[in-house]
Amino acid sequence: MKAAVFIEPGTVEVHEMDMPTLQKPTDALIRVVRASVCGSDLWWFRGIAQRTSNSTVGHEAIGIVEEVGSEVSSVKPGDFVIAPFTHGCGHCAACRAGFDGNCLNQEPGGNGGYQGEYLRFAHADWALVKIPGQPSDYSDDMLDSFVTLADVMATGYHAAVSAEVSAGSTVAVMGDGAVGLSGVISAKLRGATRIIAMSRHEDRQKLAREFGATDVVAERGDEAVKKVMELTEGAGVDAVLECVGTEQSVDTAVQLGRPGAIVGRVCVPQKPEMNTNNLFWRNIGLRGGVASVTTYDRQVLLEAVLDGTIQPGKVFTKHFDLDHIQDAYDAMDQRTAIKSLIEISK
Ligand SMILES: [Zn+2]
Ligand SMILES: [Zn+2]
Q1: Residue 173 alpha carbon to ligand 2 centre in Å
Q2: At a CB cut-off of 8 Å and minimum separation 6, what does 335 contact?
Q3: Ligand 2 center to 101 CA (angstroms)
Q4: Among 28, 41, 65, 303, which lies 20 to 30 A Cα-Cα from 116?
Q5: For residues 5 and 22, is the Cβ–Cβ distance under 8 A?
Q6: How confident is the model over 33-85, as pLDDT tens digits?
Q7: Are 103 and 89 in contact (CB under 8 A)?
Q8: What's the CA-to-centroid distance between 107 and ligand 2, angstroms?
Q9: Neighbours of ion ligand 2 (CB under 5 A)
Q10: Global pTM?
């Protein structure tokens, strides 16, 4: 089978690999239909994060179940599924509390290689999310939207849940990448009435408005804070979704909230330390982390895609086949695509 592999920073190639096999009774083998490139894949692609040469890559896909282990009963061969990047077991304390992205029984090696023709999926019984019917029952746009439910849409939703966005909230969204745009969709889905997208790129501003943003602020840093204060009559917003992860962005996010606001963050912080006194003096809350993908897909997101309430697949502004995986990465690296989709099989 063919799969994308990391060679060295800036280079991915498609190699002929051995078929993955079931390693545990809780595994499933998935034939990948569509996969995607994540903003976090750019960390190793750019050489910022270390990665072993010749390792398979990718962690976002939809596909068809080919084979299941003896302890998997919720899905069967032939089922159409979302393969989340998280692999919640469904029964540990974290999973039961709704934090399946922090499952206490995670298995090393059971969550990579989604950008390939086949993939071994750990904790398949609970973590996979079944989509009704078959891929041929859906439009291309719909299939793209399903792919976002493997990570990016659920991650944006986690920012909104963490920040406690609710009906009537005023929300600021930091970041106009695919996660930030998914944050805008999520804020709207949770009933926010005012959504301020912080974006300086015209194409992304346009998509943010389409997804529900009511205002756009192109400024950054102190200027951005000033602008948001003007828009909220000096009060600040009820909730901030921090979808960038840089020190400056987190710092700005904290200043945008009204007293008592919560900043929900979902991007790996660039710097481990921060000035927590900035939180104290205005009662600002800061929470967030790895998204609970399976939980959100089951509770809200799959249904919202199926009934047409949300169309997160629009973040895929370029499509590629597996043989053009290098172009898919280059497009995101050079920001000529918001997010790259890889069509692998029908
Ligand atoms: Zn991802
Ligand atoms: Zn678990």
Answers
A1: 30
A2: none
A3: 8
A4: 303
A5: no
A6: 999 999 999 999 999 888 999 999 999 999 999 999 999 999 999 999 999 99
A7: yes
A8: 10
A9: 88-89, 92, 95, 103, 105
A10: 0.97
**Do the beta carbons of residue 232 and residue 245 sit within 8 Å?**
no
Rounded to the nearest whole angstrom, what is the distance from the C-alpha of residue 2 to the centroid of ligand 2?
Answer: 31
Find tokens 């690296």 and name the residue. Answer: 333
Token pair belonging to 144: 């793209």
Please tell me the distance between residue 127's alpha carbon and the centre of ligand 2 in angstroms. Answer: 9
Q: What is the pLDDT of residues 187-234, one digit of tens each?
A: 999 999 999 999 999 999 999 999 999 999 999 999 999 999 999 999
Taking the centre of ligand 2 as the mean of its atom positions, its distance from the CA of residue 85, in whole angstroms, is: 14
Interaxial angle between packed helices 247-256 and 221-231, expressed in degrees from 0 to 180 and rounded to the nearest 10: 20
Which of 196, 203, 152 has the alpha carbon at shortest distance from 171?
Answer: 196
pLDDT (0 to 100) of residue 267: 87
**Separation of CA 92 and ligand 2 centre (Å):** 4
- Domains of the chain (ranges, CATH numbers): 2-151+292-343 (3.90.180.10), 155-287 (3.40.50.720)
Q: Which residues pair with 342 in a beta bridge?
A: 35, 320
Instruction: Tokens 């895929």: give the residue.
Output: 316
